[in-house]
Amino acid sequence: MKDYTKTSFTFFWRFGLVLLIAVSLLNLSRDPGQAQTTYPEYIVVYGDTLSWIALRFDTTVEDLQSLNGLDASSGLHPGDHLKIPTLAGMQGILTTEFVPLGSSLTSLSRRSQAEPADLIKANQLTSPSELFIGREIVMTRSENGSAMQTMDSLKTGQSFFEASILAGQNTWQLAEMNRLENPSHGLPMDTYFKPSDVDSPNNLAIPGLKSIVIDNLPMIQGDTYLIKVTSESPVTVKASLNGKEPVFVDMGNGMQMAYGAIHALTEIGVYPLTMEFTNSDGETYRFDQYVMINSGNFATDQPLDVDPSTVGTEEVKREDAAFKQIVAPITPVQQWDGLWYSPAQDADCIISSFGSRRTYNDDPTLYYHTGLDLGYCKGTDVYAPAVGTVVAVLPDQIVRGNTLVIDHGLGVYSIYMHLNSFNVNVGDIVAPGQLIGIIGTTGRSTGPHLHFEIDIQGTPVNPLTWLRRAFP
Ligand SMILES: [Zn+2]
What we know:
Elements: H1 4-30, E1 41-43, H2 50-56, H3 61-67, E2 81-83, E3 93-98, H4 105-112, H5 116-123, E4 136-141, E5 147-150, H6 160-166, H7 171-177, E6 193-196, E7 209-215, E8 219-220, E9 224-231, E10 235-241, E11 249-252, E12 255-261, E13 269-279, E14 284-294, H8 314-326, E15 350-352, E16 357-358, E17 367-368, E18 372-375, E19 381-383, E20 388-397, E21 401-409, E22 412-422, E23 429-430, E24 435-439, E25 449-456, E26 459-461, H9 463-468
Parallel strand pairs: 1-3, 8-14
Antiparallel strand pairs: 1-2, 3-4, 5-6, 7-9, 9-12, 10-13, 11-12, 13-14, 15-18, 16-17, 18-25, 19-24, 20-21, 20-23, 21-22, 22-24, 22-25, 25-26
The structure holds zinc ion (ZN).
């Protein structure tokens, strides 16, 4: 005889268990504290708009509003945290920065402690070559994460274990931070990071070198850049970008610097920057990374009609060639200190900007404005913007008129054209604010103004950069 009671009991017991599990699962999935989708947060800065943030993170204003409980009437305030719908699964705080010199997906991930896959997703990367210097990229950081410093690179024969001890770190923790499965996987030429009080700007570790940093990113047509290298032992550094080789000068204390200029007519695009480091044993380490050169947003002037004897003639070519010789030497001493002053009495009296595209007398040859034209607004005095040595006083140039040239060192020259008269002589060392000349309209000039130019290794750069930020 069948025991129905037992069967029923078994059935109910089993059914009950299934029901219990099902209810538990249901509860688990409804529990807001567990298994919930995470989103990284973007901190709103002054000037941000929802549509701009949506564009930047490949989402829509509607999706941003719905995820963050905003409506059309909610304002956006600097410091607000916004969850980003398209980056579901990531966490931490989103920051943006320009891809620095020497960084790769691996080094960026090690430094920020973000997963490489998350960096790829946040930046919609399809190839490592897209990590060009100066590109703005999105990174994530944990809200209370530590800053990271580049470690000295492993020397030949040195283990990651030994390097971690020297760095005062726990080997396994450090290996994990650097995404090494095992400390024995550490490699001599690889770049590793350790926790620190301040973030290191350096992203590349080469034996013997302490840091390599490129300054004034992103690169812009007609702008100045600076490469700084510090090393603990003598090293010869070479760099090449778009056919130009900025020259490194030894500044003492293991520091070498090279000022470079991006020609104002350089086509916008990515260019390889090649750097070479040769140590005293003759070993050479070389690396390439793409650099983005962005638009200088230059205006195009109306076609200009000028005296034909001031454009392209043999005399003008001779004047240009002689001028090139004057600004060619690289004096290995930096004479200036910090920010430069405007050479005019009214710094805002700008009548023509640097870089504007020009043609002369219906000839299609494209020229550009190589300096900053400061008009006659408050007075006619011309002042030295920074310490330097007067290296040329050139009267009656066909194009430049009465011209003064000051060498500030490291290949950086300032030039003053169309002057009425000079107040200094060749060899004078001038101080910032010192009267050096009087505004005039000599040479190829249509009215009284100062053409203020800064040349780096013979290439004119936007002078406003030097009036707005201090180098180095
Ligand atoms: Zn000018």
